[in-house]
Design goal:
The protein is of the alpha+beta class and 487 residues long. The protein has helices spanning 13-28, 35-57, 60-66, 85-104, 108-124, 132-146, 160-165, 177-197, 201-206, 210-215, 230-252, 257-274, 281-288, 297-309, 334-355, 367-370, 412-418, 422-438, and strands at residues 31-33, 174-176, 385-394, 401-404, 445-454, 460-461.
Amino acid sequence: MRTTAIPDVAVPTATRVRRFGSDGIERCRREVPGSSLAAFRVAAGLSGAVVAARFVSRGWVERLYLEPSYHFTYPGFSWVRPLPAAGMYALYAVMVLAGLALALGWRPRWAALAFTLGFAYAEAIDVTTYLNHYELVTLIGVLCVVLPLPARRVSVAESPAQRALARPEPVGSTVPVWVVWLLRFQLGAVYVFAGLGKVDVDWLLRGEPLHTWLLGRTDLPLVGPWFADRWVAVALSWGGALFDLGVVAFLLRRRTRPFAYAAVVVFHAITGWLFPGIGAFPFVMIVLTPIFFEPDWPDRVRVALGRRFGLPPVPPVPPVPPVTPVAAAAVMTPSTWRVRLGTAAVVMWVVVQLVVPLRHLAYPGDVRWTEEGYRWSWRVLLTEKEGSATFRLTDPATGLTRTVWPSDELAPHQVRSMSVRPDLIRQYAHHLADEVERTGAARPEVRVDAWVAIAGLPRTRLMDPAVDLAAEPLDIWPADDIEPSPL
């Protein structure tokens, strides 16, 4: 019997692309249990409340915002100023309450919005307060505002056991899987970019700046004497680099995930113990990283606890029927437009999170020296610099010169931060010139004598002492007043 071959029908490339995109969107919209996102919401709220409460309990509101008479600002945010004392404390009280409300699931979007706006405003007051985990807390706050995180009402009549075993409200029992993956991406970016920054000669071969920091911890019992040896710092540097570069891959695999999370807890607990200056960063990473577990992991924990303590079983989440893919020839509906707009917003967010940490590659020189593109790049524990800067103000009419020491006006933490960062030195030079102009005198020429020691190396001149910094622009373009890097 003779058979006739049916010729293949060529599918246009554009059609294939549309089908691939449509199938990808539908896969991303697949519904999964929302209990892990509810746990993430609780962790995010507690993290925000802890970070804000630390500012109040440690007197940082007074020391960082109220005592200094001058604040270094971000480009375009010179209008952000500290509130009066009562206002600043009220702002942090609102942040603490908003973080707790987010953790409890009470008006979560509004709670996240209140916290994020308050925290971003406080952090925009002064550049010298910048820390990587403050950036992470802000980004997580934004995501908590826009993402569909499950929420439930908490009744005061519930017992602790009932509250612990209660499930989310039916409306929030499932979520699209892309929400889980977006949060995983955000946390994974911190680890990966931190690891990439550690692929460096100073970090891997000299153990710097870890060796310099460990020399200050030789008084610790048992392990302290070991920290005087450079090989210990080199070994720990390699361990830190391998951890940051590999932990995300192990967190994404089911079999290795428990061991990877145990490593996360141990790693951050040790770094928090050795380097208390990194603040709440270890706590934040430990409580947020469980988002890498299966989306129903809190349900499994509740079931296990219920069996262990003889509590009533947790009713299962009803299965969600699969979403039928939209046909290529279907008419665009408002919901389809929303899906595509949402997809574009997610893609834009991911692109920004990938591009911003790499923007330092567009600048000449070593980013650790120039600081151009250093912030918002997740370069965690990568640089140790100390230095000094004195300013010379010259009257262009008379040629008279006087010397200004920043410590006469700035707080100690501002002096430390400004003295090693060219952009802040430049900004302070403009401030000094502006203050003279306000008295009615001619705008002076401002030059700086700045010396910086980096990565355990001898002090090197940071800025060109012949340049009038008051005439230099305050923008994001590469600067030509920075001396060559000793690295």
